[in-house]
Write a structure and sequence with these properties.
Elements: E1 4-13, H1 15-20, H2 25-50, E2 53-56, E3 67-74, H3 78-103, H4 113-120, E4 122-129, H5 135-151, E5 175-176, E6 193-194, E7 208-209, H6 211-218, H7 229-233, H8 235-241, H9 245-254, H10 275-294, E8 302-310, H11 313-318, H12 328-352, E9 356-361, E10 365-370, H13 375-397, E11 401-402, E12 405-406, E13 411-419, H14 424-440, E14 445-451, E15 457-463, H15 469-483, H16 488-499, H17 510-524
Parallel strand pairs: 5-6, 13-14
Antiparallel strand pairs: 1-3, 1-4, 2-3, 5-7, 8-10, 8-13, 9-10, 11-12, 14-15
Helix pairs in contact: 2-3, 2-6, 3-6, 9-10, 12-13, 13-15, 16-17
């Protein structure tokens, strides 16, 4: 019997809601990792069960996107293969759910648990025959057909009433923890299960979770804890803190309930600390605060979320900018390899140097928490490495052109700088919005937003091309403001800027503006003699 060659495209969703619905950094990390591990199960079944070959992404990449493209030699039973791979993924997700229940010390599943698990994943797959050597047409068809399938989505409506999950706000809360006063959260379903003997750092008092949120919260509980946003904000100071005896005494006092948010005095309340321990905790914090001043250790309350995504990724992967597509499969495999190597480097670079923590690094896309002190260094390094090890390495073998003009494989990034108490979902959503604005500004750009604790929001976009040195200058300005200048200079120049601009926010006289800028800058210097 003659065998035919087929392309196989497999996707798992929903991506945004599954990952972005997070109350804690651990939720965000777990959502991303779960999808990556599920797609890995699909790839494993495809390769080991049916001798399939994966084209994209690189199977060696630890973090994987929610889809994979493969190639298989087979003559019949394609539908059965697809169904068995889908079933493998669903079984893996069910096993994750069972493991999470055990980690949460829950012995009996509440009614509705299995339904939430079963209805969570949206799995789509299809095969496309490769006619002769026409790989390019097959690839274009399978992407087009997948898009058509996703546009006609079937769904099963769940008749759920009662309190919704504290994290996703959509599904019924099936698990809860009593409040500080011993009362249950309001409007719970009668079948909801109480979670006991779990640290408040992991499952907060008064919190209520759906089955999906419980999996994300408990699946990786025995691994090294994912740092909180307060931990990310103070990363730059933690090495110095470890050398301060008062810090270690203070930290040990809280034992397993420790979280870096307790470094901030505003969190020393009965909501965070039992009433009988509150006065002692405040006393130890006062001693720590005195030691921090003596050692000149400053604690930030702001941190950054960084997201970036490859520009024109769909077109680049499809070979739209190649003058000759006869080598498309090898070209896609090379992209897969380059991005895999870059993703591995990016993860190690951020994590191992304690610049922050990576949530997801798939190669052309990245999500991570970055400490403010290292933000601009990280941005520069990530971009330069992508340019050298991905763009230039790809172009050496496959030059990219549009209308006979060379184009580069670049990425656009979004950054949101926020106070550690700002809801995590808001911060992530803002970072993604700034990434979109960077792409709207012409791609190969950076969008930055600052969400102040007071509620103010400031944002801007800059292009990477010919402006990379701006990041260095911004960092130098920030360092100068911290050490050598009064921060009133910013407020003063803002007022002057408004007076010297026309209705279109353009400076009417640049010479006067520069003179005024220098005058205000000089007066704000801590070295300036105010008597003169």
């Amino acid at each position: 019997m003659n065998q035919n060659t087929y392309l196989f495209l497999f996707t798992i969703g929903p991506v945004q809601s599954f990952i972005a619905q997070a109350r804690k950094t651990a939720d965000l990390y777990a959502g991303s990792r779960i999808l990556s591990e599920l797609i890995n199960e699909a790839i494993k079944k495809f390769v080991e069960g049916y001798s399939g070959r994966v084209i994209f992404p690189n199977p060696d990449n630890k973090a994987k996107p929610n889809r994979f493209l493969g190639k298989i030699e087979f003559s019949n039973e394609l539908k059965k293969i697809g169904q068995e791979i889908e079933q493998t993924v669903r079984q893996a997700f069910s096993q994750m759910a069972e493991k999470a229940l055990n980690e949460a010390r829950i012995t009996q599943k509440p009614q509705g648990f299995d339904e939430q698990i079963h209805n969570q994943l949206e799995i789509f797959w299809l095969f496309e025959p490769v006619q002769g050597q026409d790989f390019t047409s097959a690839y274009e068809n399978i992407e087009k057909n997948m898009g058509a399938i996703k546009n006609v989505r079937s769904f099963k409506q769940l008749a759920e009433r009662g309190r919704k999950c504290s994290v996703d706000g959509e599904k019924n809360a099936l698990f809860y923890k009593k409040r500080e006063n011993g009362q249950e959260p309001n409007h719970l379903n009668r079948n909801a299960v109480e979670v006991k003997n779990i640290s408040d750092v992991i499952f907060a008092k008064g919190e209520a979770l759906s089955a999906i949120s419980l999996i994300k919260r408990f699946l990786y509980i025995n691994e090294q804890p994912f740092p909180s946003v307060a931990s990310i904000a103070t990363l730059n100071a933690q090495k110095k803190l470890a050398e301060v005896p008062e810090y270690n005494t203070y930290k040990d006092y809280f034992n397993e309930e420790w979280d870096e948010r307790l470094l901030y005095e505003e969190n020393l309340t009965e909501k965070e600390i039992p009433k009988n321990k509150l006065n002692e905790a405040k006393s130890k914090h006062s001693q720590l605060h005195k030691a921090l001043k003596e050692n000149e250790i400053k604690l930030y309350k702001y941190y950054a979320i960084l997201v970036f995504d490859g520009d024109r990724m769909g077109k680049i992967l499809s070979g739209a900018y190649l003058t000759d597509k006869t080598d498309l499969q090898k070209y896609q495999s090379l992209i897969s390899e380059l991005l895999s190597n870059y993703a591995k480097w990016a993860t190690e670079y951020v994590n191992n140097h304690s610049f922050g923590r990576t949530i997801y690094a798939g190669g052309d896309d990245f999500v991570g928490f970055i400490n403010l002190e290292y933000l601009f260094d990280v941005l520069n390094e990530l971009r330069e490495k992508f340019e050298k090890d991905v763009n230039q390495a790809l172009q050496q073998k496959y030059p990219l052109k549009e209308n006979n003009m060379p184009i580069d494989f670049t990425f656009s990034a979004g950054v949101c700088i926020a106070h550690y108490k700002t809801p995590l979902g808001v911060v992530l959503k803002t970072a993604k919005k700034m990434e979109d604005k960077a792409k709207e500004a012409g791609r190969n750009a950076l969008g930055i937003a600052v969400l102040k604790h007071s509620g103010e929001q400031h944002e801007t976009t800059i292009h990477w091309e010919n402006n990379a040195e701006n990041l260095v200058r911004i960092k130098e300005i920030i360092q100068a403001l911290e050490k050598d200048f009064s921060d009133t200079w910013i407020k003063n120049i803002e007022q002057e800027f408004t007076l010297l601009c026309d209705n279109n926010q353009s400076i009417k006289d640049k010479e006067i503006f520069l003179y005024e800028l220098q005058r205000l800058l000089k007066r704000s210097s801590i070295y300036h003699d105010k008597s003169k």
